[in-house]
Amino acid sequence: MTKSTDAQSVKSYFARAYGRSPDRIWAAPGRVNLLGDHTDYNGGLALPFALAQRAYVALGWREDTAVHLNSAGFEPWAGTLDHIGPGMPASWAQYAAGTAWALGITRGFDAAILSDVPLSAGLSSSAAIGCAMGGALANPETVGERHNVVNACVRAENQVAGAPTGGMDQTASMFAAAGHALLIDFGRDSMMHVPLDLSPRGLAILIINTRVTHALADGQYGRRRAECQEAARQLGVTALAQATPEDAERLDGILARRTRHVTTETERVRTAVGLLNAGTPEKLGPVLLASHTSLRDDYEVSCPELDTAVEAAMEAGALGARMTGGGFGGSALALIREADRPAITEAIRIAFARHGFTAPEMFTAVPSQSAERISL
Ligand code: ADP
Ligand code: MG
């Protein structure tokens, strides 16, 4: 996918919509999770990186408390600060304006939004919008102020949009670094940049957006969280990632499988970080594939489209592949040698067509910088 959005176009979009120049522009990226899924709410480890694809928000303050939002491809939204918050009618403005509520903004504003992060593809278009809006509204300059934006975006998603997000997406969007993955330890509430040098080694991360979202996703997400809580209770730990894979065998059936996923996934992130710090990303393949198997068989959040993407990529020579994100649709990723790209993308296209699936969207994920202010 080529970049279709930039600061200049959002500036003109703002000028067309509001007949003046914006006061500020911020951009914030979507993210892909390299490894560590369903670990965030279990106090475990995750390893996302920021995408080049990002949301741009151009913002202009108003003298009253009105709020006007324009986002290309969405119905314009207009209201006042009083209309924004928990209980507001469901719309995309819950994400874009919810951040203003969570930040306690008291002055009205006009905003224009352009984003090239694929929607609902497990690449966090919602955090991109939330963080770009949070950046434009709060203009964070310190690490602490960036944390405030992360927390505001999470509150907006949880309390205004009603989406039970765990904070990985917003943390990646606000704190990632180009050429690096971001190790997030949800148990210790800490993070660290880990080098992810792919292109100099002839490697790439291919994203395969299946373009499907299976309806069962929401209820299943809540069920997994409840199962993990019950497993943690039975094992006497406050968060399931504190248990070990051996502990899993003390539990019955489903709870054993869920625990096995969470504990082995956390170990896989540790292994991956070791490989990346040693400068050997080409060795990540088996770890990625083991993660997919664990998510498919133990956590049971994959789906035929994701399995097909992973199997076709592996058969065509990928070093490793896995579903990424919450599951039941969205995207898979594959670690490939750049030279094998044509064969691998073709194999995936053919496999999807053979199953009668919608053609997937495929592009290279380039580990990119976090949210930033754009000079006007
Ligand atoms: P994901 O974050 O994985 O892409 P979500 O369901 O969490 O999927 O968020 C998607 C929602 O975020 C969209 O339905 C919309 O409400 C909001 N959103 C994302 N991108 C935009 C955009 N460019 N303009 C307006 N709203 C957006
Ligand atoms: Mg989201």
Task: Report on this structure.
This protein has two domains: 4-195 and 368-374, Ribosomal Protein S5, domain 2; 199-365, GHMP kinase, C-terminal domain (Alpha-Beta Plaits). Helix content is 40%, strand content 23%. The two termini are 26 Å apart. The chain is globular, with a radius of gyration of 20 Å. It has 376 residues and is α+β, with helices and mostly antiparallel strands. The model has no long low-confidence stretch (mean pLDDT 96). The strands form three sheets. The chain has a six-stranded mixed sheet with strand order 5-4-6-3-1-13, with helices on both faces. Strands 10-11-9-12 form a four-stranded antiparallel sheet. The protein has a three-stranded antiparallel sheet with strand order 2-7-8, with helices on both faces. The structure holds adenosine-5'-diphosphate (ADP) and magnesium ion.
In CATH, the topology of the largest domain is named Ribosomal Protein S5, domain 2
Tell me which CATH architecture of the largest domain applies here: 2-Layer Sandwich
The helix fraction, in percent, is 40-55%
H/E topology pattern = HEEEEEHEHHHEEEHHHHHEEHEE
Distance from N terminus to C terminus (CA atoms, Å) equals 26 Å
Report the sheet-strand fraction.
Answer: 15-25%
CATH class of the largest domain: Alpha Beta
Q: Catalogue the ligands.
A: adenosine-5'-diphosphate, magnesium ion
